[in-house]
Amino acid sequence: MSAPEVIVHRDAPLLAKAVAARLVTRLVDAVAARGAASLVLTGGGIGTAVLTELAAAPARDAVDWRHVDVWWGDERFLPSGDKERNETGARAALLDHVDVDPARVHPMPPSDGPDGDDPEAAAARYATELREAARPEDHGVVPSFDVLLLGIGPEGHIASLFPGLPALYDERSVVAVRGAPKPPPTRLTLTLTSINAAREIWILAAGPEKANAVALALSDAGPVQVPAAGGRGRQRTLFLLDAEAAGQVPQGMGRPADH
User: Fold this and answer.
1) Is the pTM of this model over 0.85?
2) Which run of H or of E encompasses 93?
3) Residue 239: in which H helix or E strand, if any?
């Protein structure tokens, strides 16, 4: 697992633009190196802002989107098209505007999908899809994602892994979460096992309400108490922050990317 690097941008709009630009470069490089790239999306304010900026970026078409697999780190277990679903937001912000191969877009099942209102069955279905996409060189039951984007909650949650919940102990690749402390209570999520299969994990945070969680995630806190402390990429872990979210980062740990 890689040690975290901290990169600080002046404000949230600049952070979103910078992450979008970084993502273009990373996806272009991955497709050039292996003929394909894999990206795991997150929801939330800054995650959606990044996708919006990516759609608007002049360089977005440098990415061969037909060779990019798109996955999700978690999802609200709601009907297809519900405005609260991460998939819905991602399609509106980015996926409807680029030339993706529909067969390479892998949303988590909705509550009106083939498994009906059974989140455990839906989680098992997504786990199967991930396992079938994994290659021998991935050495696991999920692909070695090129970039996995994560937001972070004020209490340190990532994906739908909330402090103290059973999902943090689960070694399956995808699980259902019931009783999440923020609505809706029923969700699907990758586990830390799957998250940490990624080559690169980028944790995004903006705003002063995230500062304490970011500081804890960079500390020696355990992942059961602070799930973000357990998210580490195989090759690289980036904390991409605005100045407010970086307000409690230990001196000398973060480096400013702009002025």
Assistant:
1) yes
2) helix 86-93
3) strand 236-242
